[in-house]
């Protein structure tokens, strides 16, 4: 038994009307038909031969078979287009050729055109008795073959249906995988170190990769010139949101949510647009970003769960479907939820940092205030310490985290004075040895206070060692040279510079020039020579400006008032 | 990269379908196998341009399959992407030894897999042009 022409025909027709798997299946049927002494052929809708299985008993007239195939397909179109495929009429056929129409099954629309026809060619029936292996009348054989042919058509229909369903389910599964991976990516990237805008941009970009839309944007509530506004925080694709649309969007979203909906969905696919939109918007989805915004907010509309809307995520013009659906609502809400949590965490962390540095500054300035001459001293020392640390970092490897810690050590260096008698601190004129002894205890007291706090441990060395001298003549431990930690050397130098340039009970404030000269004299004795020189070679007058005015535009683009907030971040994290 | 032949190997048939649909929709020819032995045979007969195989399969693991492919003259250079379950991470050294072009952990993004395949085939085409 051979199936002539099959391979040639197959290679030419793959991908046209029949899949290779279908051709293989039909070929199997063909070989069964061949066993009954008949030939089997498949034609596709345009009349091209797909498959010819010849039993070898006779040659089929393919031109005649083609005509039969075309006529049976044409007949089925006109007779009963609405019928379910398996019940298709076998069609008009001649005595020796049986034919049936092959239809794909469409899950959505049952009325589908034939993709081809299957034919059984009985050849020259009954003339010679030698081929009568089976003891059947021509009529009986024909009926049996007709049944087989019907089964083939039904099988083809079913397998088509199954394949279509598998394809649909697999496509949905693939989309589910994409969504899962996206949500996983969002949750693993929810680190506080990430900037808000980076995270939101990633969310938009990832979403546009798996949901085909013209544009996605995230709008967040921001205060600009004392006015609350919804501003674009991140976006992908083509989307143009001006202030007017932003306000409109927000109002409509809030009203949808108050109606118990999870999102604002609008298109004119099933019903006319619910709202009026600019012409370029064919369909739209918007979901809220909910958080605990303060109640005085202009945009903060409470949702039923008690949260407020702090922003929204909007997408327009779905490209692969006619509009957005409930699946999109769920996905968008998940992503928006992740974004909201991220923003909220960031805000809470920032609040925490501001509260913390505010408390530290309040504490140190209350100590500085014990003595009118040391007002603002701690914050200035913090600033100068940071300045020196940055100069060191230009030459030695010094991480940003270390610079932050040096700033905090500078801020807290005199915290131990809280345990020193005010009378001694305020005393005008010369101190007795006993009083001096008392004052010299403040580094140890400060270290003791901070050492009790786990997060402050790294700050302790700077507080403890800021009165050590490089020649070993300092206190409390008389450490010399590199026994003194870097932070101790830096805070010590910063403390001295500020003391020199400040007014004291017993003297006027020294000029910057005088202070510079004094530090130069103290290199190698009071101060570490290397760090001292780094400081003296820096733009001390610029620093002086910053200290006097609190800000300086020339000094980087960093807001000095935010130094502290950033610095305490390293203690909390 | 259209018309390139991809062999997808996984005993979990839904994975094969998910991958096959994504690749077919992007112009690739997809052939499949359900286990290592079948995959090896198909790879030798069909000479795919790239193979995507599951790591954890009964009888022959993905790694064993790759080792076998590397010993065969016809398939020794065929790029392979390994799909792994999270618990079966394949070390960098192992990946290098078996010339594994990429590793994706399940559940993977079909889009990412497609991107990886396109990258690998593109780089291969460029390096072959240069030779």
Structural class of chain B: alpha/beta
Question: Which CATH class of chain B is shown?
Answer: Alpha Beta
Level-2 CATH architecture of the largest domain in chain A = Orthogonal Bundle
Order of helices and strands of chain A: HHEEHEEHHEEHEEEHHHHHHHHHHHH
CATH architecture of chain B: 3-Layer(aba) Sandwich
CATH third-level topology of chain B: Rossmann fold
Count every beta strand of chain B, where a strand is a DSSP E run of 2 or more residues: 5
**What global shape of chain B is seen?**
globular
The total domain count of chain A is 3
The quaternary structure here is: heterodimer
Query: What count of domains describes the coordinates of chain B?
Result: 1
Number of helices of chain A: 18
Largest interface here, residues on each chain?
Answer: A-B, 14 and 12 residues
* Tally of helical segments of chain B: 5
So what's the overall shape of chain A? elongated
Q: Roughly how many Å is the radius of gyration of chain B?
A: 13 Å
* Percentage of residues in strands of chain A: 5-15%
Distance between the termini of chain B: 19 Å
> What is the fold-level CATH name, i.e. the topology of the largest domain in chain A?
Hypothetical protein af1432
Verbal overview:
The complex is a heterodimer of chains A (573) and B (131). With 573 residues, chain A is an alpha+beta fold. Chain A has 3 domains: 6-163, Beta-Lactamase (2-Layer Sandwich), CATH 3.30.450; 196-349, GAF domain (Beta-Lactamase, 2-Layer Sandwich); 369-572, Hypothetical protein af1432 (Orthogonal Bundle). Chain A is built from 18 helices and 9 strands. Chain A has helices at 6-13, 20-35, 62-79, 138-188, 196-210, 243-258, 326-368, 377-393, 400-412, 422-426, 433-439, 442-451, 460-464, 486-500, 512-522, 529-537, 540-549, 563-572, and strands at 39-44, 49-53, 97-102, 116-121, 213-224, 227-237, 264-267, 283-291, 308-318. In chain A, the strands form 2 sheets. A 5-stranded antiparallel β-sheet of chain A has the order 6-5-9-8-7, sandwiched between helices. A 4-stranded antiparallel β-sheet of chain A has the order 2-1-4-3, with helices on both faces. In chain A, strand 1 (39-44) and strand 2 (49-53) form a beta hairpin. By secondary structure, chain B is of the alpha/beta class. Chain B has a single domain, classed as Response regulator (Rossmann fold, 3-Layer(aba) Sandwich), CATH 3.40.50. Chain B contains 5 helices and 5 strands, in the order E-H-E-H-E-H-E-H-E-H. The chains are: A alpha+beta (573), B alpha/beta (131).
């Amino acid at each position: 038994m051979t199936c002539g022409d099959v391979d040639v025909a197959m290679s030419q027709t793959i991908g046209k009307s029949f899949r290779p798997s279908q051709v293989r299946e039909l070929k199997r049927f063909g070989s069964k038909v061949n066993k009954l002494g008949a030939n089997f052929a498949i034609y596709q809708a345009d009349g091209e031969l797909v498959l010819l299985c010849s039993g070898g008993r006779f040659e089929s007239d393919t031109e005649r078979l083609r005509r039969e195939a075309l006529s049976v397909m044409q007949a089925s179109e006109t007779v009963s287009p609405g019928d379910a495929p398996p019940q298709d009429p076998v069609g008009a056929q001649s005595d020796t050729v049986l034919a049936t129409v092959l239809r794909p099954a469409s899950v959505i629309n049952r009325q589908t055109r034939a993709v081809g026809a299957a034919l059984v060619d009985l050849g020259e029936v009954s003339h010679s008795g030698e081929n009568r292996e089976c003891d059947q009348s021509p009529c009986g054989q024909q009926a049996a073959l007709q049944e087989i042919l019907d089964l083939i058509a039904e099988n083809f229909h079913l397998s088509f249906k199954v394949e279509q369903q598998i394809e649909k389910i697999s496509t949905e599964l693939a989309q589910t995988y994409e969504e899962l991976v996206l949500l996983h990516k969002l949750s693993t990237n929810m680190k506080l170190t990430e900037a808000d805008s980076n995270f939101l941009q990633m969310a938009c970009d990832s979403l546009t990769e798996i949901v085909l839309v013209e544009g996605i944007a995230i709008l967040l509530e921001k205060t600009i010139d004392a006015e609350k506004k919804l501003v674009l925080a991140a976006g992908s694709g083509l989307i143009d949101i001006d202030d007017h649309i932003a306000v409109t969007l927000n109002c409509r979203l809030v009203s949808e949510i108050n109606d118990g909906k999870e999102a604002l969905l609008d298109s004119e696919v099933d019903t006319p647009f619910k709202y009026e939109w600019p012409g370029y918007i064919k369909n739209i989805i918007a979901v809220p970003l909910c958080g605990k915004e303060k109640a005085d907010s202009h945009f903060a509309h409470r949702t039923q769960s008690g949260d407020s809307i702090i922003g929204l995520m909007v997408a327009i013009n779905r490209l692969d479907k006619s509009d957005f659906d409930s699946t999109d609502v769920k996905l968008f809400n998940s992503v928006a939820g992740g974004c909201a949590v991220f923003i909220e965490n960031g805000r809470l962390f920032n609040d925490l940092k501001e509260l913390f540095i505010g408390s530290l500054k309040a504490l140190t300035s209350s100590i500085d205030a014990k003595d009118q001459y040391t007002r603002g001293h701690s914050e200035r020392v913090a600033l100068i310490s940071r300045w020196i640390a940055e100069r060191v970092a230009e030459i030695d490897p010094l991480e940003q985290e270390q610079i932050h810690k040096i700033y905090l050590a500078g801020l807290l260096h005199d915290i131990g004075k809280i345990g020193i008698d005010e009378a001694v601190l305020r005393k005008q004129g010369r101190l007795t040895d006993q009083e001096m002894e008392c004052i010299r205890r403040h580094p140890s007291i400060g270290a003791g206070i901070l050492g009790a706090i786990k997060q402050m441990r790294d700050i302790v060395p700077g507080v403890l060692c800021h009165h050590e001298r490089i020649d070993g003549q300092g206190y409390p431990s008389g450490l010399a040279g590199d026994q003194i930690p870097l932070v101790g050397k830096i805070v010590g130098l910063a403390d001295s510079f500020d003391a020199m340039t400040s007014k004291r009970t017993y003297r006027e404030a020294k000029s910057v020039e005088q202070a510079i000269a004094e530090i130069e004299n103290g290199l190698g004795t009071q101060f570490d020579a290397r760090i001292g020189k780094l400081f003296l070679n820096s733009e001390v007058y610029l620093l002086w400006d910053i200290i006097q005015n609190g800000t300086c535009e020339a000094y980087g683009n960093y807001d000095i008032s935010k130094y502290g907030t950033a610095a305490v971040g390293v203690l909390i994290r | 990269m259209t018309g390139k032949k991809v062999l997808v190997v996984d005993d979990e048939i839904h994975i094969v379908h998910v991958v096959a649909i994504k690749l077919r929709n992007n112009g690739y020819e997809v052939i499949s196998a359900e286990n290592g032995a079948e995959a090896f045979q198909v790879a030798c007969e069909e000479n795919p341009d790239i193979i995507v195989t599951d790591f954890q399969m009964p009888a022959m693991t993905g790694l064993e399959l790759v080792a076998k492919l590397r010993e065969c003259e016809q398939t020794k250079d065929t790029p392979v992407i390994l799909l792994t379950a999270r618990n079966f991470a394949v070390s960098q050294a192992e990946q290098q030894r078996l010339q594994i072009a990429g590793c994706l952990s399940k559940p993977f993004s079909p889009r990412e897999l497609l991107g990886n395949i396109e990258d690998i085939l593109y780089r291969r085409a460029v390096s072959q042009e240069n030779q």
